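Comment thread on ticket #2218

A.B. wrote:
> Attaching the input chain for the structure job we discussed in standup.
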Amino acid sequence: MLSAKSVFQEILDNDESFRLFCSIAASGEAQGGWENGRIAALVPEGERALAPKIARHGADEDKHGRIFAALLKKRGLTPVPVPAETDYTMLLERHGIGLAHDKLRRDEPLTVRDVVVYLAHSRVTEQRAAEQLGLLRTHFADHPEIGKAVRVISEDEVNHLAYTHEELLRLAAAGHGRLIQRTLRACALTEIRVHRDVSLAVMARMGRILRWPRARSALLAAGIHAVYAYERLAGWHRMVTLAAPARRDALGGPAASAPEFA
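C.D. wrote:
> Ran it. Output below, let me know if you need it in another format.
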């Protein structure tokens, strides 16, 4: 039976597909860590209270990258270069989502508008991350090899999503509501398109590694296109709504250390 669980189980059971999966994940998390670290250093004076939370977000992303690297090392595997068409974070940046890397490389303070753009981008992408890790947690939380990693990262993603809700609501109350909603909508519509393209690229590569029959690959591609059609029609709305989170001040403390996988 073809399901998300069965597909990921196949990827997990094969060293080469697992190697590609962890390499893509580790690269994306490391990139997110760098971005958040730079943003924390550049937040404007009026938003300095936000800097420790952004830094905590970046530290969590760095931790996730180390976790995926540790999973590879435990199997005796080394990372592989990430194919450009599967690089979710870089493709989002190329499509103008989030803060441009050339801006982050300069030592110039950001503006409040930049902070809104950053938080809106995070609100959308953390929704995706929380959902994907939640799905993995449902099926693999007790897995002897990856269960601990899935639980740790899933918990962090829920915190990240709560934090973006809380901070965007604060900024909306301060008079930035229209900018927030405009930016969230643009981010969401672009993200669902990039997610579709990356998903197709990743599954195509997994199919070649695992030698899936053409019919199986076609069925998976059809499923990805169907999800995109739903998200383009109505599903994107879940990425732009804001509500007071159950977890308040979710990033108010230091980042937890990465678990051991020896």
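A.B. wrote:
> Thanks. Noting for the ticket: The mean pLDDT is 95.
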